[in-house]
User: Fold these one by one.
Assistant:
Number 1:
Amino acid sequence: MLGSTLFGSTLALAQKGGVWESKKSGWLLLTGDQHNQVIQFADQYKQYLSVARSAELSNREVMRLARAAGFIEFTDPSQVKAGARLIVNNRDRAVILAVIGSQPMAEGSRLIGTHQDSPHIDLKGRPIYSAGKTGFALFKTKYYGGIEKYQWANVPLALVGRIDTEDGRRVDVSIGLKPGDPVFLITANAPHSDSELRTRTYSDVFKGEELDPVAGSIPSEDGSVTDQVAQTLTSMFNVKEEDLVSAELQLVPATQPVDVGIDRGLVGAWGQDDKLSSFCAARGVMEIQGTPKYTALAYFSNFEEVGSINNTGARSEFLTATYSRLTAAERGAGYNDVDLRRALHNAQVVSSDTNDGENPIFENTQEPSNAARLGYGVTIKRYGAGFDANSEFIARIRSLLDQNQIPWQTQTPKVDVGGGGTIGGFMSAADMEVIDIGVPLLSMHATIEGSSKVDLWNLYRFFKVFYQSQ
């Protein structure tokens, strides 16, 4: 009887196209009230994106929201008590939010790791130069992360970042985001005179050294446009031109986050890789009620798009050092390295990053039976070649998703065509139990990316239950 029942279920699924083809869009699984929650959460996400224009600005906004939710800076071991809500800031460019659990760190923790940086264009240390006899001053740049260079032409760009001076001042820079601000423009060639450029390949429509935007066009009294730009910039921020060497200035799209489609089902914005996961992780940990059994941590890293380098990237010792500080605070004088190793070994981790979604125009760039679709839920990433979570941890995550009625899917890139990676590998190397989870995007790494509002909400829901899982 059991065999015939199983056979009947299998046959019914086969007639419908299989279990994966029978899955419904996340939109069709919502109640009326949940639909409103999806829209409200997306609106709050867009507000965050409008200010989180760099890793540092994201860090600042995450910390602002955390303080409003009752988190305080971790400055003393005595603060590490069950229920405490702590901020561990790393040079204003990476941060960990922690809600201390009732069980010791050595017995386990629940960590969600994301990255706050996104592909953009950096200014070089001596950025202002003259474009020959054209009468323009340009900014000399170097692109950051895996951008498709041609997409950055003819897009209004804003300049954001900081300048640090020899006398110890930090000067915040933002030009192009407020109404009435000027913007910067990388100029493409007109079709009337581009015949000798038409043989360039897809990836070389613009070369890296050509991604230089117009910085100014009005000459100074002695006829120098570059002098005029330098004088305007330095007087605007009360700095010297040499101070630009000790600056972190980047060009980002000046456009604001918007809804996409007549049904407003997508969020369109630059920087969703991976500020999307960062926002969901932040909101999830901030909304923990009471004291969780295991300490819950949200880790916001930097420099993932260029290899997680530097002392604020996931390759650094910041995360391990934070685990050491928290574990030592709990153990007191008896703390030793074995306690730290137990805490790392027993940590359960979601490395969250967005992934490429099925493209309605370029369908052949993905293998459809293992591609992720916008609107169909959070993505369990299966890379193969030793990069996956172990099968028992994947099963545990599937159970959490199903028990909480959170739609999910999988993603594996087309063989010999695509790929990618997350910060999860660095945490796995520390002996943590790690799985890669995300949601799909359209136009990933472009000057505007598309995400499904219902996927965004479902990722946030998953994070909330993962933080408090037993």
Number 2:
Amino acid sequence: MSEGRPDLGAFAGEADEGGDRVVCHVDMDCFYAACERLREPALRGEPLVVGMGYESDEPHGAVATASYEAREFGVESAMAISEALELLPRKVEAARDDDADVDEAGFYRPVDLDYYEDVAADVKAVLRERADVLREVSIDEAYLDVTDRVDWADSEGVAAYAREIKGRIREAVGVVASVGVAPTMSAAKIASDHDKPDGLVVVEPGEVRAFLAPLDVAEIHNVGPVTARELREMGIETAGDLAGADPDALRERFGERGLQIRRFARGEDDRDVEPVGEPKSLSRESAFTEATAEREAKRDRVRALAADVAERAEREDALYRTIGIKVVTPPFDVNTRAESLPGPVQNADLVTETALDLLAEFADERVRKVGVRVSNLSFTESDQASLTGFDGEGVGSPDDAAENAGEPLDAEHERVTPDANAEQALGDDAGAGQVRLTGFGDANSDEEAADEPERPSEGQTSLWEYV
């Protein structure tokens, strides 16, 4: 385990926002792979790929997460399984091939969300024991406000408390977490990612800006690859550069989000750790390593995402009245399309068919990222709608469905095309090799919807939808 405080350099002692709050960000390391290793201890230390939309012995689907051993072969989150197999053949197939090297092969497992959520529930139980306020961000990460448990006046006690959380998770559940501790949410999140795997980094009040200053600008909360590239074009390479940048220039280039990321780079973040409730939509997004115009590649990715979304909705007992897709084309043009239904349904085949129908508009387009979403959710025991009408009740207007989904409808009340600039203003800046769950700027989302997802080195699909 790695633990400690970073070298703070010249900025140490400067005041930061956040007061005396003690915020922990707990991020599980390679969680899907860790869960599979709990079930199959023989997989420990072996290259392991967990695929969504993947079936045993098939080349379909996309990588949900790859163990550190698999990443050494170039396998990344969101990569097509077929591409991953070229880099890392299946161990069983290599064993049958006299010309193959078994040591250059790995294991593949399909996503088992029910099992992962059982393990995640055990982790959440540990966290609830050790925090008065808990914000569940995804299946593998959460914020904790432990201000009432420890005090920055005893910095060693703060570190010991975080170390206890890590140890209890390992002891009670058998998986490994990295923890960042800071007086702000954004700094705590960056700290948890700073020394992975199995890391523990504590950033005290007055030291946040010094901690952030030398980091690459891409590491700042709400800065993704596209924004990072544009910042570098402005001569802004590090968080320190961003902290000292002209606010008017940032506002002109990025709007209000430019000022927000500047505040984060300066260590200024007054958001409270607050629990959140039921989602207003369920979604999956996945970026291609490079923009592609290949039709089947796009369709295969959408099929995998649609299957995951439908499965999650079924587990959550969620009905939906809107099915939509998101397509990002170069350089960063965000296009969303949606179709409203006669009433709430739960139908996996319908999600896939509708998503593919909507995707047809982009059949010949080069695409960077795709996403699938169901929205206008209902968690009651009400009857489902038939495909021709709502059984037993009057059908709400399409405009009502669109309003609840947070999207305007066009004249046919079928498809939706929100303003692309509004989407980008949400910070929806995910980079290649990413799979993220909190997509499309849901009305129930706040900073996590705008935040950059995990980078390829730590990327995996996140599944605690409540953000």
